[in-house]
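does this look right to u?? nicotinamide-adenine-dinucleotide version
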Amino acid sequence: MYTDLQLHIDGEWLGGAGRKGEDVVNPATGKSLASLPHATAADLDRALDAAAKGLKIWAATSPYDRSKVLRKAADLMRERADHIARIMTMEQGKVLAEARMETLTTADIIDWMAEEGRRSYGRIIPGRAPNSRLMVIQEPVGVVAAFTPWNFPILTPVRKFVAALAAGCSVVIKASEETPAGCIEAVRCFADAGLPNGVLNLVFGVPSTVSEHLIGADIVRKISFTGSVPVGKHLAGLAAKGMKRATMELGGHSPVVVFGDADPEKSAEVIAASKYRNAGQVCVSPTRFYVQEQVYDRFVKRFTDYAKAIKLGDGLDKDTTMGPLANPRRLDAMEAIVNDAKSRGGKVVAGGKRHGNQGFFFEPTVITDLPDDSKLMTDEPFGPIAPIVPFKTFDEVVERANSLPFGLAAYAFTSSSQTATKIGDAIQSGMIAINSAVVSMPETPFGGVKESGYGHEGGIEGLEAYTNKKFVSLS
Ligand code: NAD
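got this back:
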C-alpha cells in the first residue's frame, strides 16, 4: 500500500479536490503510484499564515516541552519504520534495507536535535560597570521555507525541519514532487506526536513557482535548500533580495585518494559499498577515485569485482542489492557520461549500459583510463558510475583533487598518521573521512565549501542555523 498523497496546512490534511495533480512514478516499473495534489496560490498563502500563527505558539513553548513532542515523533517513526521504508522504496527505488536504515537514522536525528534544542545556550559577558550584565541569547530565526530533493525522501526534509523546530521556528516545507510520501509520513509522525497546528506545513507544486512564492513572502526569514548548484544559486539570489538567511546544501564531486600504503582490497570494498549506495544518487557519494600507482591494479580489481557482484532489481525484492535510478533524467545523464568517457579513451571495465527495458535501471559501472577533463571527472555523476585513475605523488593528487569548483565531501585511505593529517589539511572540502566512508552523523556538522554551498546541518551548527543571536545589555 502506497500513501494517500496530501498537503498538510495548519494541521489539516488536504487532498486533490480542486487542485491540479501530478503522477508519482515507481522507478522500478515506470508505472504511476498515485496522483499528487499541487498547492494553489491560496494554499501557499494559507500555509504562510499558518506558519506565522504557529511561530507565535511554538516560540513561546519551552525547549523542554518542545523536546517532548519531537522525541515522541521519533518514537512513532521507529514504530512505523517498516511501513515508511516500503513506501520510500516504491517511490524512490532504493533497496528496502537502505530505506529502513534511512528511516531509523532519521529518528536518531530527531532525538539528537530534540535534546540539543534544550541546550541552546547563550552566554554572559562581564559588564564594564558595576551591576551590569552583558548577555547573548539565542532566539528562533522565525518562519523557515525549506526545499528538498528526491534522493533521501525522509532524512533530508526532517534534518532541515527538526533543527528549525528544535530552535523554536515554524516551517513551510516543499519536499520533492517525485518522492512525496516519505516527507508526508514524516510530517504525520510529528502531527500525531502533538505538534501544534501551523508549526509544520507541507506543500507541493511546480518547484520554481512555490519557491518564488514562499521566499518572496515577508514573513519568511530563513531559506534552506538541498539540491543542484544551479538551483541553489538561483534560490540564494531570491533570498538575498529579501536579506534572508540561507543554508545551501548543493552538489559535490567527491574525490577519493588511496595512498600506496593503504590496504587496496579493504579500501576498495569500503568505498565501493559507499559508491553504489542509493545507486550513487547521494550528494556525498565518492565520485572520483585517485589511486597511487603501486596499488592501482589491486584496487581496480577488487572494486570491479564488487561492482560486478551487485544484484540489480526492484528494491522490494530481498535479493536486490541496488535498485533503479530515481527518474529517467538520471538514465539519460548516465548514458551521456559513458559515451563521453568512451570517446575520450575511457575503458569500461564493468557495466556501462542501461539494464532491462522496464524502469530506470543502470548497471554498476567502472571506467578507467580516462582524462581529468572528461565529463565524468568534472561533472557530478549522481549515479552508479565510478572513474578510477592512477597518481604518482602527494602534491600531484592534491592539485587534481582540488581542481574542481566543488567542495562537499572527500575520502582518503592511508596507514600513515602523518599522511592522514596532511591530506586532511590539504583537501578543500566541508567534510573528509579518512579510512572510512562515513561523513554524516546526527552529532556532526554537514555542509560544503566553494560551489557546494554554505551553512551546516547536523551538530550544534545545525541548530544554530535556525537561531538569531541577540545581545542584551543590562545596567
Ligand atoms: P534539478 O536541478 O532540476 O532539481 C534538483 C532539486 O531541486 C529537485 O528536488 C527539484 O524539485 C528542486 N528544484 C528545481 N528547481 C527548483 C526551484 N526553482 N525552486 C525550488 N526547488 C527547485 O535536478 P534533478 O534532475 O532533480 O537532479 C539533478 C542534479 O541535481 C543531480 O545531478 C545532482 O547534482 C543534483 N542533486 C543534488 C542533490 C543533493 O542531495 N545535493 C539531490 C538531488 C539532486
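The mean pLDDT is 97. idk if thats expected tbh
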